[in-house]
Design a protein that fits this description.
By secondary structure, the protein is α/β, with parallel strands linked by helices. The protein contains 14 helices and 17 strands. The structure holds pyridoxal-5'-phosphate (PLP).
């Protein structure tokens, strides 16, 4: 992979922040956007902005073709069987909420169990807390190993015939753990439970094949994979989606509306009430083309090299603690001695280096780690070893600045 030409596609990276060339290490929060995506959005809004599925006019037809074309790109990207299984949502959060409120409400009763883990993002905790309260089902946590991984033996013990839903993140946005979701799906299915995968941190970084994973639902966000904000995907197996009620009601998702009752469109539109996220979906299609041109395997390999290099360098800094397992995705979560991570991020920002600090929308995991917050550097296809050298220099500066705590 030619990182120089990849970087050339990202205008935002070529600027100075606080008098230093920008080093962007916050792609787990949101990725930057290449010109291919920016231009595609520009082209849509300048050239054929129109509502979809409605007008017979030329612009409407073009917008519909592009919107539905983006759905086909997503289908291929995750190897779904059919475009009926690809629902556009606002992001991972909306996708998981749709599963919880539609599938969850209809299929859970007192005594049933929903299994998640303490490493989940709030978006994969709170929808289940809410649906558990509404239905009387029990929310059950699978334990974590001391290094922040899941053991299949624990999974075998936690998932039982009472389990109706298992919902687990593919890759942890804090620990970088890559969870064995294919094996977990097999265990869930032995007990006739459905497997939901939060793919927010995996779809942007590795080749996803929902057929191979055999998960029942898979959720991800466009903005973390070079696409625009406000667009995401809910994949679901056709039979399950067919049997589910829509989560939102209104225009676009109906077939016949009578005074007191209505019928729904077929999949996937019955889940896309209201004017859809047209520009977002078209932009996501362009992001998928961009990622495919580079190759997900190449991107994964590049990030692997970066994270190995980062861990090696950061481990040489006295007083620095890295959280998570050795085998990790492309991010490093850390603390330096007793310096608050917000202070770390502030000093780094003064050096032009953007990292995330806080609880990373994973408060239960922070308590499991016994910290209030951490700093996180996350990498993507446009990062380089030089970026990591700058991070390490910035961390040395942080140490000098807060010298008294060492
Ligand atoms: N799940 C994980 C693992 C995440 O990292 C995130 C975002 O940071 C989400 C879910 C929520 O994604 P979004 O805010 O795009 O809905």
């Amino acid at each position: 992979m030619d990182v120089k030409s990849v970087r050339d596609a990202f205008p935002i990276l070529h600027q100075e922040v606080n008098g230093h060339p920008l080093v962007y290490l916050d792609s787990s929060a949101t990725s930057q956007k290449p010109v291919q995506v920016i231009e595609k959005l520009d082209e849509y809004y300048r050239g054929y902005n129109s509502n979809v599925h409605r007008g017979v006019h030329t612009l409407g037809t073009k917008a519909t073709d592009e919107y539905e074309g983006a759905r086909e790109k997503v289908r291929q990207f995750i190897n779904a069987q059919s475009t009926q299984e690809v629902i556009f949502t606002r992001g991972t959060t909306t996708a998981i909420n749709t599963i919880a409120s539609s599938y969850g409400r209809a299929n859970l009763k007192p005594g049933d169990e929903i299994v998640i883990t303490p490493m989940e993002h709030h978006s994969n905790i709170i929808p289940w807390q809410q649906v558990a309260k509404e239905t009387g089902a029990t929310l059950k946590y699978m334990p974590l190993q001391p290094n922040g991984t899941i053991s299949l033996q624990d999974a075998e013990e936690t998932i039982t015939d009472q389990t109706k839903i298992v919902s687990i993140m593919h890759v942890s946005n804090v620990l970088g753990t890559i969870n064995p979701v294919k094996e977990l799906a097999a265990i869930a299915h032995k007990h006739e439970a459905v497997m939901v995968v939060d793919g927010a941190q995996s779809a942007p970084h590795m080749r996803i094949d929902v057929k191979d994973l055999d998960c029942d639902f898979y959720a991800f966000s466009g903005h973390k994979m070079c696409g625009p904000t406000g667009i995401g995907v809910l994949y679901g197996k056709r039979q399950l989606l067919n049997d589910m009620e829509p989560a939102e009601f209104g225009g676009e998702m109906i077939d016949f509306v009578n005074l007191y009752d209505s019928t729904w469109k077929e999949l996937p539109w019955k889940f896309e009430g209201g004017t859809p996220i047209i520009g977002g979906a078209i932009g996501l299609g362009a992001a998928i083309d961009f990622l495919n041109d580079i190759g997900l395997e190449e991107i994964e390999k590049h990030e692997h090299e970066l994270v190995d290099y980062a861990v090696e360098k950061m481990n040489q800094i006295d007083g620095l603690t890295i959280y998570g397992p050795e085998e990790r995705a492309g991010l490093v979560t850390f603390n330096i001695s007793d310096v608050h991570p917000h202070d770390v991020a502030t000093v780094l920002d003064a050096e032009g280096i953007a990292v995330r600090a806080g609880h990373h929308c994973a408060q239960p995991l922070m308590r499991w780690l016994d910290v209030t917050a951490t700093a996180r550097a996350s990498f993507y296809l446009y990062n380089t070893k030089e970026d990591i050298d700058r991070l390490v220099e910035g961390l040395q500066t942080t140490k000098e600045y807060f010298g008294d705590v060492f």
